[in-house]
Design goal:
mainly beta, Protocatechuate 3,4-Dioxygenase, subunit A, 5-stranded mixed β-sheet, 4-stranded mixed β-sheet, 1 helix, 11 strands
Length: 221
């Protein structure tokens, strides 16, 4: 049975003040609001399944396991965005990690007792470094909601750990329309839960099999 208690490690020592911040929207360039500071993206718990025993896939494509021949099961998804500082400037060289459940709600983690099968073509743990404009992008799959007790289900989400030179941000990205948002205590603990929820966009001609989720992240750089 799943629980979402934080791990007692350096990654769980989150700054209490960060809970007061909500994710911001980039102001229009040249507008009267252009000098306003963006709010730091809201912290969320690390969760019990951070893959501390594994090395992240750094190819940018989590739908394929290095050395494997197949592709992960599930709805293919591109997760992309920018890491920005509160002034709206790109944070270059930030390390962005993501980890998540597979298409049937199971993590590739030894403590996950979910009887759902593992996917040999999906490890669900990736990392990359933002470019000079703060951009990151991963190919992955859209995870489903999954039960953590007989009476409670977590909404679909992807975990993020973003580390710049001056800040470490642990958060989660959720998906629009999930019926479990309102009953999830972790999402509802956010000052502005809607800021952590993304809307999926249709595939592009360049990647016709992948839906697209854009998630911009604000940290102190």
């Amino acid at each position: 049975m799943k629980t979402d208690k934080p791990l007692h490690s350096r990654r769980t020592i989150l700054k209490a003040s960060a809970a007061l911040f909500a994710a911001g929207i980039i102001p229009p360039t040249g507008s009267a609001f252009a000098q306003m500071l963006l709010n730091r993206t809201q912290d969320q718990i690390l969760g019990p399944f951070y893959p501390i025993m594994s090395k992240p896939n750094r190819t940018g494509d989590l739908t394929r396991v290095p050395g494997g021949s197949g592709r992960a099961k599930g709805q293919l998804l591109i997760v992309k965005g920018r890491v920005l500082n509160p002034q709206g400037k790109p944070v270059a060289g930030a390390d962005v990690e993501i980890w998540q459940a597979n298409s049937v709600g199971r993590y590739a983690h030894p403590d996950d007792t979910n009887p759902a099968p593992l996917d040999p073509n999906f490890e669900g743990f990736g990392a990359m470094t933002t470019d000079t404009d703060g951009y990151y992008q991963f190919k992955t799959i859209k995870p489903p909601p999954y039960p953590i007790t007989p009476t409670r289900t977590r909404p679909a989400h992807i975990h993020f750990d973003v580390r710049g030179r001056h800040d470490e941000l642990i958060t989660q990205m959720y998906f629009e329309g999930d019926p479990y948002h309102k009953t999830d205590p972790f999402l509802q603990s956010a000052f502005n839960p809607e800021a952590l929820i993304v809307k999926l966009s249709p595939p592009t001609p360049e990647e016709p099999d992948f839906m697209v989720a854009e998630f911009n992240i604000v940290c102190r750089g």
